Amino acid sequence: MFFEELEDYGVKLHRLISSEEGPIKLFVGGLHGEEGLYTAPILERLAKEETYTGEAIIVPSLVENGKYIGVLSEEYYRSKEGMTLIQLIQHYQPSFYFELHAYEKQSYSRLTDPERVNKIAVPPFVDLREGILIGSIAPILRRKFSENDFCVTIEIPKWQSERVSEEVLRILRLALSKAKREEVMQELRMRYPARIKKAEELFRQYYRNKLKPF
Length: 214
Known about the structure:
Blueprint: E1 2-8, E2 11-17, E3 24-29, H1 36-46, E4 55-59, H2 80-92, E5 96-103, H3 108-111, H4 116-120, E6 126-129, E7 132-135, H5 139-142, E8 150-157, H6 162-177, H7 181-191, H8 193-207
Parallel strand pairs: 3-4, 3-5, 5-8
Antiparallel strand pairs: 1-2, 2-4, 6-7, 7-8
Helix pairs in contact: 1-6, 7-8
């Protein structure tokens, strides 16, 4: 096992390398606005985990108190933080990519709106439990990955409790500890059977069965 904390491309990150073979995994939080206030504590705890496979790069907060630009827009990937994100992905070439966001109460209905795909051309998120939302990453960014890569977005409520933080950590620990995406998905299906089934159906409909969820 190997662990280091360093700064790469101007952001603080933790790098974990296991003696057990596995994929490269990138976990990123705080992509815009003040989301890092909510994502960093969870990802800092993840970086202290002792059970992991392959290599994990954990970025607790990509930006602190930055301008809010939605990740669904091309503009985001021309911003400093967006370009940094692309550089990290290109440099580490992860097979697992987990993106952690935080949202306000008033955004819940918009994020989970069944008509979201008709309104803004992306499917709605699915509420796993306690307001923890799951879905794929922005289509613009998904094109930076191969069809076999495992790419997940998790939206956490800003009014999160310790129970919510623990639940999110359980999901992230799965990704950190497992070597295969199907192992992660099987565990998620067992924990949230109806919710994950719905999320997978939405993903397949959107990508017309050309990609495996997520």
